[in-house]
Fold this sequence. Notes:
Layout: E1 2-5, H1 15-19, E2 24-26, E3 32-34, H2 43-52, E4 58-61
Antiparallel strand pairs: 1-4, 2-3
Amino acid sequence: MKIFVDRDKCQNHGLCAISAPASFQLDTDGELQYQESFDDEHIDDIEDAIDSCPLQAILLHPDAA
Length: 65
């Protein structure tokens, strides 16, 4: 699985960065940065981040084979 953020929806609220700081961060300009790939140990935090996004801009996509 990979993380995908819809940049058209995302308004950089940062709730995902609070829920899953290993995968999501706000840079010095307040813009969301994220890592598409993640370790399975972080899946619960990432699911919390998805649930916390007020604009539902975060999705999980299967890895392309």
